[in-house]
Amino acid sequence: MLTLAFDTATGVATSALVRDGEVLGERASRAARVLADAEELLQQAGADPRDLNRLVVGTGPGSFTATRMGLAAARALAFALELPLAGVSTLAALAAGAPGALPVVDAGRREVFTLVDGAPVVAAPGQLRLEPGETCVGDGAIRYRDVLEALGARIPAGESELHLPRARFHAELAGEPVDPEAVEPLYLRLPDAEQAR
Amino acid sequence: MEGSNQRAGRLILGIETSCDETAAAVVTPDGRILSNVISSQAELHARFGGVVPEVASRRHLELVVPVLREALAEADAELETLDAVAVTQGPGLVGALLVGLSAAKAVAWANRLPLVPVNHLHGHVASLYLQPEPIEPPFLCLLASGGHTLLIDVAEPGGFRVLGTTLDDAAGEAFDKGARLLGLGYPGGAAIDRLAREGDSGSYDFPVARVHGLDFSFSGLKTALLYTVRDLSEDELERRRADLAAAYQRAIVRALVARVHEAAEQNAASRIAVVGGVAANSELRAALPEAAFAPLPLCTDNAAMIASAARYTEAVPFPGYLALDAYASG
Ligand SMILES: [Zn+2]
After folding, report:
1. Domains of chain B
2. Which pTM value belongs to this model?
3. How far is CA B114 from the centre of its chain?
4. Complex ipTM, two decimals?
5. CATH code, A104
6. What is the pLDDT of residues A162-186, one digit of tens each?
């Protein structure tokens, strides 16, 4: 089974081509390039979009706009190629790439997206409850390194790939495919206009 | 049915998500519209009194694939029979544009099709090139909508040159803001148009700023209406609402028509055309009897006009478009 997985929710978009659990190739760039990356991965594997059997997309949380770029591409591909699509949260993929670590994604506005008791939440970095010496990964961990380290967190060097939601983990975590329209972004925040009401 | 003919291929799929309409259409190379599906979000934005970009973008994501599926089905077209995918690249709300662009890239990539990135303004002009009554350049074009007010010199179908633009609000925006002040709801253009028919346009004299060159300014007009409304009691406003709508509409239409005539004279334009949402306004249509107006269904944002513009725009062959980005202005 040939799986294309990608995640555009955070500042670095990731993609992976996986055949029966074996990672054939991976890319990291930005959201606007994700299909160019996918094409390169397929070419390298001597494959074609028509050879794909399954799509997996990162559903965020992250940048609203960037998350939607991945979702729109994934849903349109699922439609055009008649492929099953599964969604995997960006936080779950980050956590799977750094076992034992807490995923922390930059949410803008001095807040982060993270997991509390396994549930995705948005919170101020200074209010996270961390175990002493707990490792934090993700672009939010890099951005709020000082705050989190003051809370006792350990944070890998900024260039470590542990901070990326690598798409190989999306492929690994993907459950049963669902109706592509049911693969929805994890926004965790209402639009400002809704909040103001 | 010319079905077999159509299925021979060479169809253009257009996708448009620059503002608050999620739209997809299938058009033939000679400009026949086989389908033109528009899912308007007007109701969704009505409670905010205008388009909220993040709300619009979320809705585009929900609608984009269903809408393009419907456009293909209505045209009896398969993705395999397409010649190209056309999509609005800008200008517009970036978050909204990127939903359509991402979907368009994916559909084109899946089928190794070329992608045609279309300028939204060119799209509005190209609404005039569609069957059954296409017009040909050269002409002077007024593009007036909720997002734009432009005077455009169109010398050939592939291009356009902007002669003047609004310095503040767009004409359609002026209608929307006026409608809000009059308690008419959103979108405001149609509501004012309707109510104005019952009013006396001479009962109020709203000034329209004269700005340099061929540019427009509508913000002063909105302020004048605001002051007038503020000085009226609720009963008076109720009684005079139709008069206010009529006078306000007349001021906008007069400003547009005056500039169109000036531009036509300066550029020795033999022909005038009007496109965009405000082109649906009945008073504007009556005030420019000599002009060619975009057909009503093609005035507001739609994807048939994007597919139409693609016929005169260079396509980006596979795989050169895979990293394409949207642009907000320009
Ligand atoms: Zn428009």
Report:
1. 4-130+301-310 (3.30.420.40), 139-294 (3.30.420.40)
2. 0.95
3. 25
4. 0.97
5. 3.30.420.40
6. 999 999 999 999 998 888 889 999 9
